[in-house]
């Protein structure tokens, strides 16, 4: 019995690009998941508004994830990933550029847009892996993919908290934007 994850699928360039962009998306999403509620609390001093931000994120995320699966079946998945990834980078840039503004409404709108794009992107990613990797390597590819998808939301907030100890929420948005535009 072997221990560890089989890295052979990473030798396939298309899967390697998808895997690296999944890591960037997972970490970037975690940075904004820490930054937006913190910024909302700093603006309002209200935990209730922070809770409302979760509702503002849930609707677009759910709808986009459901429709993103159908859309991924109807259009070119690569193009869908590029469009939704680019849109997430654009929203990240808008958050970065407006981080000093006192507009709660714009934060809620940007949060909804970001979560909508993330929902469609995340769904398309999951359905893309089997198309990139031959059958015998699919279990290893799924293990690699799920590892990065689940470690990002665990390690991302940890890194965001460490960054917040020396920088502001603006830095979180900047790092998120740079990560999303890197791939």
From TrEMBL:
Keywords, in A-Z order: Cell membrane, Membrane, Transmembrane, Transmembrane helix, Transport
Compartment list: Cell inner membrane
Domain of life: Bacteria
Annotated TM spans: 18-41, 47-68, 80-99, 158-182
Regions annotated as coiled coil: none
Entry membrane topology: Multi-pass membrane protein
InterPro entries linked to this entry: MFS_dom, MFS_trans_sf, TM_effector
Residues covered by the Major facilitator superfamily (MFS) profile domain: 1-183
Signal peptide region: none
PANTHER family the record matches: ENTEROBACTIN EXPORTER ENTS, INTEGRAL MEMBRANE EFFLUX PROTEIN-RELATED
Name of the molecule in the record: MFS transporter
């Amino acid at each position: 019995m072997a221990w560890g994850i089989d890295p052979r699928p990473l030798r396939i360039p298309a899967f390697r690009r998808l895997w690296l962009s999944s890591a960037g998306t997972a970490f970037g999403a975690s940075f904004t998941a820490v930054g937006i509620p913190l910024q909302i609390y700093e603006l309002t001093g209200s935990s209730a508004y922070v809770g409302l931000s979760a509702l503002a994120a849930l609707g677009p995320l759910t709808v986009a994830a459901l429709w993103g699966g159908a859309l991924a079946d109807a259009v070119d998945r690569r193009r869908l990933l590029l469009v939704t990834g680019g849109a997430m980078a654009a929203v990240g840039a808008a958050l970065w550029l407006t981080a000093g503004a006192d507009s709660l409404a714009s934060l809620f709108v940007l949060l909804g847009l970001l979560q909508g794009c993330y929902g469609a992107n995340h769904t398309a990613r999951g359905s893309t892996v089997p198309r990139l990797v031959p059958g015998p390597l699919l279990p290893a590819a799924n293990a690699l993919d799920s590892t990065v998808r689940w470690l990002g939301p665990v390690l991302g907030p940890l890194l965001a908290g460490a960054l917040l100890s020396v920088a502001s929420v603006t830095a979180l948005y900047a790092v998120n934007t740079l990560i999303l535009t890197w791939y």
